[in-house]
Design a protein that fits this description.
single chain, alpha+beta, 2 domains, 7-stranded mixed sheet, 3-stranded antiparallel sheet, 4 helices, 24% helix
């Protein structure tokens, strides 16, 4: 018996794929993935430093091709390069407790109240003020990855500057009304830049305004995805896994130029 024409076979596969996807969509309503916040880890983006464990081949977190100064995703292991476009979705100030390295090091807990954090902090621990940003990060395929970015210590000064950039941006409606758009409508570019002081050198973030989500062809979908991600975080459906974070990974973030108006 002769094989069916190639075009017919392709059409049949396509039809079968559409039927399967329709079935999956129906099943997704009945068999939802019942993950809790503790089951989901929001990836972090950070900059690879000279001593980052992701550069060591024998380390479980090793990432092939990762170089000093590269911005990368700690969970997806995506290497973004020396700059990346992001949409800030939510900002939170938290107070993380870390155990001193002499006592074994490691993450102890996170609190939203500095007084509560101070009360539970033991002598061999330190409370670290942390500015946590939840982001959508553009990947090489043009899609958007959910991630977080932590700014601590000297980075807190830059966090305040970044927040000022967000709050100072203005848009104009069709009838001429000026307004400050939500942060998840705004786009920024994070760049890796070498920094140094008396103690040594490292790679740090710089930040610059890079437009609005409306500049993208899928801008409406991007805006909607950012809102959903924000609601997910506010609803406690996902969290940052600080156990994977290293205080020494943070550099400084340096503002690059004035924030433009749109």
């Amino acid at each position: 018996m002769a094989n069916p024409p190639k075009g017919t076979a392709v059409a049949r596969r396509k039809a079968a794929e559409v039927e399967a996807l329709n079935s999956m969509a129906l099943d997704s309503q009945e068999f939802a993935n019942e993950f809790k916040a503790s089951d989901l880890a929001i990836p972090r983006i950070t900059i690879c430093q000279a001593l980052s464990p992701q550069r060591k081949k024998t380390d479980p977190s090793f990432i092939e091709g990762l170089e000093e100064g590269n911005i990368f995703n700690t969970v997806l292991q995506t290497i973004y390069g020396e700059d990346v476009v992001v949409v800030p979705v939510l900002f939170q100030k938290v107070y993380n407790i870390w155990r001193d390295k002499d006592s074994g090091g490691g993450f102890v807990g996170t609190y939203h109240d500095p007084i509560e954090a101070g009360e539970v902090c033991e002598e061999d621990c330190e409370v670290v003020d942390t500015a946590e940003y939840y982001l959508l990060v553009q990947n090489a395929d043009g899609g958007w990855d959910q991630a977080s970015l932590s700014l601590k210590m000297t980075g807190l000064k830059i966090s305040r500057q970044w927040n000022s950039l967000i709050s100072s941006r203005r848009c104009v409606t069709g009838d001429g009304m000026r307004f400050n758009p939500p942060m998840f409508a705004q786009v920024f570019r994070l760049t890796s830049a070498e920094a140094e002081n008396a103690k040594g050198s490292w790679f740090a973030f710089s930040v610059a305004g890079d437009g609005m989500v409306t500049q993208f062809e899928d801008g409406a979908d991007l805006y909607g995805a950012a809102k959903v991600f924000r609601e997910m975080i506010e609803g406690g459906l996902a969290r940052v896994v600080y156990e994977e974070a290293e205080i020494v990974e943070e550099g400084e973030i340096v503002e690059e130029g004035p924030n433009p108006s749109f």
